[in-house]
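Example S7 (structure tokens).
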């Protein structure tokens, strides 16, 4: 059965009306803008990222990096060591971190929030290989990963055209009105947490409006609240790499999780000193320190619950859960998750 997808509402007509923008995001939980970002800046960022991927062997040799033609024999995903080798090089790009400070985005965040929004330095680039749909980003609310306060806002933008078959983002309009963090269990894919919309809809009718998306183009962006339920669609192309940008903004003066002040690195360590070593300018280095937003501890309660769910499913023989434990045991052998993963795998005979 083909999933029915509604069309996102275009809010370009209200881009200069802060009151209407706030009304819409408070009502629907998201705002979508067509051709809003500076296209030249975005395509230059795409060139730098995809050139890095080609140098790392992820794109087909001899092709134009801007076409994003993936070498599917090199497939990997977040949480794997071989992914981080190339991803860390992408994270070091100065242009990537400058993207959070593009003036059109900062201006829009101030209109939506009614005050300045601080770019969150923990920026994420999603790099999704084709024919790897089991690792598609699952259904979730961003708060479980980013925390701090419910008023922080995500800006998601495709770095290049992203038609539905390439795997753009989809949201459930009005889902933020649940007003709470919903129950998230285990899943493969970025963040490894998933919520069961059908199950949660029994007590939350706000989740029944269906999935909305669009055929994104370079320059489009989607912004939404931390409780808005969303997911990625699968990349079902034959050979195209899906590349997208996750920037987040914290209302100035509101609490921010300590985890949001370190570089994004799902596996292995990456420091700001490593990121900054080849930058040409110093103006954005440690920029967040001037804001003095209250820093709060990052809770592992959601990840702990998701891991416990993975353990239960692995014991029940679920292949994806067993794969999660194998990856964790390999990548983090001396952490509590890694030790437990190995113990469970030994118990169920899941070690190769």
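Recovered sequence:
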């Amino acid at each position: 059965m083909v999933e029915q997808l509604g069309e996102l509402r275009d809010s370009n007509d209200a881009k200069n009306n802060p009151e209407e923008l706030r009304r819409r995001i408070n009502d629907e939980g998201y705002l979508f803008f067509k051709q809003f970002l500076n296209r030249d800046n975005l395509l230059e960022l795409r060139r730098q990222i995809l050139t890095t991927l080609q140098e790392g062997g992820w794109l087909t040799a001899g092709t134009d990096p801007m076409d994003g033609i993936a070498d599917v024999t090199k497939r990997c995903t977040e949480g794997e060591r071989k992914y981080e080798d190339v991803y860390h090089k992408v994270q070091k790009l100065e242009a990537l971190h400058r993207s959070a400070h593009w003036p059109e985005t900062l201006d829009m965040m101030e209109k939506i929030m009614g005050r300045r929004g601080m770019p969150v330095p923990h920026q994420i680039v999603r790099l999704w290989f084709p024919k790897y749909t089991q690792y598609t980003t699952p259904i979730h609310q961003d708060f479980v990963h980013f925390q701090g306060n419910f008023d922080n806002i995500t800006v998601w933008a495709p770095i290049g055209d992203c038609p539905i078959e390439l795997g753009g983002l989809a949201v459930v309009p009005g889902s933020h009105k649940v007003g709470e963090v919903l129950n998230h269990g285990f899943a493969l894919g970025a963040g490894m947490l998933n919520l069961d919309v059908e199950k949660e809809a029994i007590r939350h009718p706000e989740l029944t409006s269906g999935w909305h998306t669009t055929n994104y183009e370079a320059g489009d962006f989607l912004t939404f609240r931390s409780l808005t339920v969303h997911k990625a669609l699968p990349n079902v192309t034959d050979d195209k790499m899906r590349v997208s940008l996750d920037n987040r903004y914290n209302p100035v003066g509101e609490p921010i999780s300590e985890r949001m002040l370190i570089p994004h690195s799902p596996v292995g360590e990456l420091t700001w000193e490593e990121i900054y070593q080849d930058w040409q300018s110093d103006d954005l280095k440690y920029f967040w320190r001037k804001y003095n937003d209250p820093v709060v501890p990052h809770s592992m309660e959601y990840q702990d619950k998701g891991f416990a769910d993975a353990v239960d499913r692995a014991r029940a023989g679920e292949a994806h859960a067993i794969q999660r434990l194998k990856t964790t045991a390999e990548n983090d052998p001396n952490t509590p998750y890694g030790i437990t993963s190995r113990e469970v795998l030994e118990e169920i005979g899941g070690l190769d």
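Notes on this example. The CA atoms of residues 162 and 216 lie 5 Å apart.
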